[in-house]
Amino acid sequence: MTAPGLQTVRGHCDPRFQRVREEFDRNFAERGESGASLCVFVDGEPVIDLWGGVADERTGRPWERDTLNVVFSCTKGLTAICGNLLVDRGLLDLDAPVARYWPEFGQQGKAAIPVRMLFNHQSGVCHVAEQVPRRGFNDWQQMVGMLERTPPFWTPGTRAGYHGMTFGWLIGELVRRVTGKSIGTFFREEIAEPLGLDAWIGLPAAHEPRVAKSIPFDLGLPRPPAWVPLEAAARLIKSTPPLRRAATRRFERALAAKGLPVELAAAAVETLGSLRYRIATNSGDWLPETFDEPAGHAAEIPAGGAVANARGLAGAYAPFSLGGAMRGVRFVGEATLAGMRTVQSAQAIDAVIGVPTTYTLGFSKSWRPVRGSGVVIGEDAFGTPGLGGQMGFADPSFRLAFGYTMTKHGLGTALNARAQSLIDATYRVLGSPGCEPGFWIRPR
User: Within 10 Å of residue 260's Cβ, how many Cβ atoms?
Assistant: First the structure.
């Protein structure tokens, strides 16, 4: 089998963007890329459309032009686009209570939560209170019922915290209640088909042979069956020096095996028993075991289960890099687009993921890098990073739409050097003066 780093990169790159092509090549040669795709639209036209590596390391199956993969939280951007279409059409009022459209949501102290707080990650419904059964994420009605019965994890509106998986069911159920269509059907009919996108929230079985196998980053964290023992055990570990040292050594060994700085081990111990850890260990084995099964691909999991490639991601954002319209179709007007790109909530320490974050109406802005992992995009850009370092976003100031997907994950939810190097090179080619403020500055 040919080593992934020696795989041929194929596709098209406008000569002006050769610097970006070189970074994509370096990802395979120097940064451990296995299989990936990259697409960049400028002025509504693809200036970069590249792919390379392998779709399956076990068999050596090459990554082809039409290869797809699970894009994880990049899915939230696709779902947010659907929600914003309904806002633009006057079918969703951002300041109305969610319960106006979805009465059962009003249980457990959620009656007054406005729609806006679902979009900007302030609702406090960042996960479910019940234990998710194995493959539970594949069952829409089950997850919606759990959300209805879950009280907020904080007083709504007082904090912002990444609604990593619940964002999708929250917005997706609003779409279903308002339109009568599932989120996958609405996305296909209103976004994917008009734009000719190879992107799916709920993959038809006929496309299954095209899916590349993801390689999740896993530190081997224990996954206990219930939260209360976990919290008690976490308190004991962190308060007992010998146990704390043993846990730290375990994380150090896991980090070293992945070629990562062992200094991250202390921070990893601090996550034990936290809200972030609870969420990570209550996924119904979706991660790391069941998300890449055909049943997981077919399920409509609208915060993390979309199957696409870079061309599909960049294509979905392209109209929003051009003022909300493309190919004679207007998707949103100026006011809605302003809400999509303008910060609605910001948190110095995100209540869930523990880093500085900013959110618009369904999307993320730049996140300041912490321990080498962040999101640095344009001053006016908006999008959503995906688990392991994937990314899709639009930047109206540069008339830019960007998509990057890959199989071999890096650590965390934000970007790593592979995606960030591609983004940085793109902005340099497009003439941004720099990114010293923590985002790429608009062109002069």
Answer: 18
